[in-house]
Design a protein that fits this description.
This is Piwi domain-containing protein. InterPro entries: Piwi, RNaseH-like_sf, RNaseH_sf. GO terms for molecular function: nucleic acid binding. The chain is an alpha+beta fold. It folds into two domains: about 40 residues, no CATH class; about 190 residues, 2-Layer Sandwich (Nucleotidyltransferase, domain 5). About 25% of the residues lie in helices and about 25% in strands. It is built from five helices and ten strands. The strands form two sheets. It has an eight-stranded mixed sheet with strand order 3-2-1-4-5-10-9-8. Strands 6-7 form a two-stranded antiparallel sheet. Helix 3 crosses helix 4. The longest helix has 19 residues. The two termini are about 30 Å apart.
């Protein structure tokens, strides 16, 4: 039976001037290993599951692809279920999403004794040319998974595409000449966004040097009843986890 343990090198705690900082960090590590939670975000929604999906391509082993899925198990988003599955080489659009999501929903029921009423899915690694396929194929996999759990079970969903590798840059104008990086939390949902999409750019990080890169979010589908502003606020909160 595994036992939680913490290795501490004598040299690490031998420096008196750094002892306080070192002991605090060690205490945080022990807290995590014992199942504790270091921080959480306030999400004023009940019976909600947040799902993250991505695909990794291994170029060293015949371009074998691996699907990664995580799903929140509690209201504070501090407990997560994770699942990995192998895919056909080089295939970005996942074809085993239904099975992975079903396992996550079963685990959610075991933990909470209820099923989520709303599911927010953040899908990473999808280009503009694949959006239609995701909308018609992957989302249909998600919807088809619900009746497998219980007849009549039909939670509302929101599917958000996450695009990090973009060329768009956003600046704050300090005066007539100088520009600076915008503050974390800055959201742009007009002018530079697409007219036929519900999308927005979000700056969620602060950089000490250089130009900050925003993240592009595209809301492919939303039946949760949340407005675009609420989706944006939820997205920004989730970046702190």
């Amino acid at each position: 039976m595994p036992v939680p343990s913490q290795v501490i090198i004598s040299n690490t705690i031998g420096q008196q001037q750094k002892l306080r900082a070192v002991t605090q960090k060690i205490a945080l590590q022990i807290n995590c290993k014992l199942g504790g939670e270091l921080w959480a975000v306030n999400i004023p929604l009940q019976n909600v599951m947040v799902v993250g999906v991505d695909v990794y391509h291994d170029v060293t082993r015949g371009r074998q692809s691996v699907l990664g899925l995580v799903a929140s198990m509690n209201r504070n988003m501090t407990r997560w279920f994770s699942k990995c599955a192998f895919q056909d080489p080089g295939k970005e659009l996942v074809n085993c999403l239904k099975v992975a999501l079903l396992e996550a929903l079963v685990k959610y029921y075991e933990v909470n004794h209820c099923r989520p009423d709303r599911i927010f899915i953040f899908r990473d690694g999808v280009g503009d040319g694949q959006l239609k396929h995701v909308d018609e194929y992957e989302i249909e996999q998600v919807i088809s998974a619900f009746p497998c759990l219980s007849p009549g079970y039909n939670p509302s969903i929101a599917v958000v595409i996450v695009q990090k590798r973009i060329n768009t840059r956003i600046f704050t104008k300090l005066n007539t000449k100088d520009l600076d990086n915008p503050m974390p939390g800055t959201t742009v949902d007009h002018t530079v966004t697409r007219t036929n999409w519900c999308d927005f750019f979000l700056v969620s990080q602060k950089v000490r040097q250089g130009t900050v890169s925003p993240t592009h979010y595209i809301v492919l589908r939303n039946s949760t009843g949340l407005s675009p502003d609420h989706i944006q606020r939820l997205t920004y909160k989730l970046t702190h986890l």
